[in-house]
Backbone:
């Protein structure tokens, strides 16, 4: 019969890190259309406050202008909100070529942040 040499009835403290992810309901959208924003969290308490910024994504992957800010609270590890795609005309005219929107979500109480894949904005007329 094997012998166990470890002590029993001891507890170990471990911190499970929180995780966050966010996504759009579409990959491409036109102005004035509705899309869903979904944020999911793991190892975060229900009711935790959530900050969401809709930002413009530059071609090099950095985030630039904040176009809209939303707040909410997690329920059962998720948060969903319907958002109408709206970009001010001056910001849209200042960028030639692709215009991408990115969700930047954060739960400051748990020190977690995430950003989504880009939502490509379909322009009604040709631009270079």
Residues:
């Amino acid at each position: 019969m094997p012998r166990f040499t470890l002590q029993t009835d001891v507890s170990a403290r471990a911190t499970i890190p929180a995780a966050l992810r966010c996504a759009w309901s579409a990959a491409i959208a036109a102005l004035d259309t509705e899309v869903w924003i979904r944020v999911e969290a793991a190892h975060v308490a229900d009711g935790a406050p959530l900050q969401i910024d809709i930002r413009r994504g530059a071609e090099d992957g950095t985030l630039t202008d904040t176009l809209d800010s939303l707040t909410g609270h997690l329920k059962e590890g998720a948060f969903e909100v319907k958002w109408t795609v709206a970009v001010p005309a001056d910001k849209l005219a200042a960028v030639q070529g692709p215009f991408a929107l990115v969700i930047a979500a954060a739960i400051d109480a748990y020190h977690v942040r995430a950003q989504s894949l880009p939502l490509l904005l379909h322009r009604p007329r040709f631009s270079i």
In short: The helical segments are 89-94. The mean pLDDT is 87. Strands lie at 19-24, 28-30, 34-42, 49-57, 63-73, 78-84, 100-107, 112-115, 119-122. The domain at 19-103 is CATH 2.60.40 (Immunoglobulin-like).
